[in-house]
Amino acid sequence: MADSPNCDLKSLSPLQLFERVTEQGDKVRALKAGKAPKDEIDAAVRMLLSLKLSYKTTTGQDYQAGLPPKDLVLINNGTTKEEDEDLVDPWNVQTSNAKGVDYDKLIVRFGSSKIDTDLINRIERATGQKPHHFLRRGIFFSHRDMDQVLDAYENKKPFYLYTGRGPSSQAMHVGHLIPFLFTKWLQEVFDVPLVIQLTDDEKYLWKDMTIEKAYEYARENAKDIIACGFDVNKTFIFSDLDYLGTSAGFYRNIVKVQKHVTFNQVKGIFGFTDSDCIGKISFPAIQAAPSFSSSFPQIFNGKENIQCLIPCAIDQDPYFRMTRDVAPRIGQPKPALLHSVFFPALQGAQTKMSASDPNSSIFLTDTPKQIKTKINKHAFSGGRDTIEEHRKYGGNCDVDVSFMYLTFFLEDDDRLEQLKQAYTSGELLTGELKKVLIETMQPLVAAHQERRKQVTDEIVKQFMTPRKLAFEF
Asked: Start and end of every WHEP-TRS domain (predicted)?
């Protein structure tokens, strides 16, 4: 029957059921807003009530918008309380598996969709460009509504890109480049506007630093971002501490989000406690607001219906699950997302890197000698204990950090495959693999440093001044 849920609901996880209820609720609101025929609205409402009943039967909990099932989301943003599960939230990534986080499980847990070959092929057809190696190699592995973005693009409808950086230190590391390198590619192949949020307010609230220091880090990080090669005529970079005080549209969207998310919901999503400062509790609305084009009236000429696409690491997804839940209730389109895997620490894929540990990654300020020393001394090896064993049994690329780094930064697919076969067979030794990584990273970092030297304070000001970009809306 059209007004009853599909018979496969019993096979869905609690989180998948939660997503189905949320989507159906959005459909009901859209039908009512569009003044659809009464029988169509009634059928959608019956479906919604039936889905809510299935959800309660499965979880023992009443459905609450924006608050996923308690057994799946507590302070770990989508992780269960089982000790063998990965911990993934905007501030922590932990796993006991040397291969890193189990991303297939994470897709199921977060309720996103896998980026499969069909989607990658569709991106290639839409853009006429070979897919970025981050897509080809599964570095960007998950999405929400990318098919809708492609529908819009193919029908000549606009969209825009939004990504960000939390400026917790003066020097960024190479892992921080991943979303920006990919976002730059997306901007070029789709030719769309880009907004980049620097959450200096967040770092002031979470870190032991002054507000002046947080703002200083934001401007220094902006130089590294600009050095990736973004076009000043198509890109707006903003500091929350600056922009929030000058944009009525931005602040109004923040307030709208704040009104539609309860304290109970943000506790469930982000793990806030009664002892957290109120700044932390209200911050998710600030990260949500750039998802709406009306936050940037100078760019979009006041238009409110332009969809946003957000490339980010999967640990940021809780912010945008909340945003996607709120969006229909404040008359805004849901943002779409593209999720990347985590960039591993040199010491292994069990944790993500820390800007406070200089040996956890290669920083954009490192010298060629420092890069060589860090890789030789700290890069976790998938090789055997002795040369004899390695020649006989081969190395393990799944846990070898040098090989992992090469999957991010060595663009030649054939060369990467040759290295994988040689290392796995034992023909290539760990030291030789590290040498390839050193020879890959030294010129990459040096070239970035040269570009950054050309980024003056005046150029930063140009990127960070609210203005019209080279697009007509």
From this structure: 13-69
Name the β-bridge partners of 142: 114, 339
In contact, 200 and 239? CB cutoff 8 Å: yes
Number of domains in the chain: 3
Looking at the DSSP assignment, which residues form a beta bridge with residue 197? 164, 238
Q: How many whole angstroms from its chain centre is CA 375?
A: 26
Residue type, 146: M
> CA 20 to CA 25: how far, in whole Å?
9
Together in a domain, 124 and 205:
yes
Percent of residues in the chain assigned helix, strand, coil, to nearest 5: 55, 10, 35
Q: Which residue has the tokens 């590391």?
A: 173
Q: What is the mean pLDDT of residues 141-170?
A: 95
Q: What angle do CA 188, 189, 194 make, to 5 degrees?
A: 45
The residue type found at 57 is: T
CA distance 469 to 463: 10
Are 422 and 383 in contact by the 8 Å Cβ rule? The answer is no
Q: In which domain, by residue range, is 199 found? A: 89-346
Based on its alpha-carbon atoms, the radius of gyration of the chain, rounded to whole angstroms, reads: 23
**276 and 171 assigned to the same domain:** yes
Same domain, 287 and 400: no
Element (H, E) at 162: strand 159-165
The residue out of 314, 346, 378 marking a domain boundary is 346
The residue among 284, 285, 312 whose CA lies nearest residue 186 is 312
pLDDT one-digit tens code per residue, 14-57: 777 887 888 888 888 878 878 888 888 888 888 888 888 888 77
Contact 153, 147 (CB under 8 A): no
Q: How far is CA 152 from CA 50, 193, 238, 264, in A?
A: 32, 15, 27, 35
What CATH number has the domain bearing residue 238? Answer: 3.40.50.620
Helix, strand or coil for residue 443?
Answer: helix
**Residue 7: pLDDT band by 50, 70, 90 thresholds?**
very low
Q: What is the C-alpha to C-alpha distance for residues 331 and 32, in angstroms, rounded to an integer?
A: 12
CA dist., res. 261 & res. 307, Å (int): 21
In the block, tokens 């220094």 appear at 220
